[in-house]
Amino acid sequence: MKSRIGIFGGTFNPVHMGHLILAQDALEAFDLGKVLFVPCDIPPHKNALQLAPAAHRAAMLEKAIEDNPDFEICDIEIRRGGTNYSIDTVRHLQKLYPRHDLFFIIGSDSLMELHQWKDIDELLRLCRFVTFVRPGFDPTKVAGKALKLKTGLSRDLIKNVVAVHQIDISASDIRHRAAEGMSIRYLVPTFVEIYIAEHNLYKT
Hints:
Elements: E1 3-10, H1 17-29, E2 34-39, H2 54-65, E3 71-73, H3 76-80, H4 86-96, E4 100-107, H5 108-111, H6 120-126, E5 128-132, H7 151-159, E6 161-162, H8 171-179, H9 190-198
Parallel strand pairs: 1-2, 1-4, 2-3, 4-5, 5-6
């Protein structure tokens, strides 16, 4: 059996406890050898107005995962710069890890948007997508047609929807609280809380 690697992409703007818990759940639920956190430079499907510089987001992420030997940061998209697409990243990671099965980790909020991703049919064939349920999402009410993908691909996606710890923490709420001078303690690792304050991030 091939070793398994999880791919967890995102803006991590900033990384928070929900990200870390989701990654740990993925590690255990799918018997992954490690989880690669892949911060993007400029997201293709999100508003980048409140996006902290990539160097800051990577620094917070690297510190947040440094005590977990099963977590690793992969800065390929930041080094490329600009807008990156998951298909290009997965193709690159396949070359780096030819003897591994790749598991692409997403939250259920991304599931309904997958049909908009670049070369999504190929991407779904190159790696196994695993979706973790976020609060308020009912996987039993998701019909294959609603995903707007080919029938077989939709069936596999729905089969790999997993309900584990549902942590209702959002990066947008953390940014709002930071902008308003409110506490973000317990929402992010202590280092991230200090880093945001020291670098005056997310102030309007």
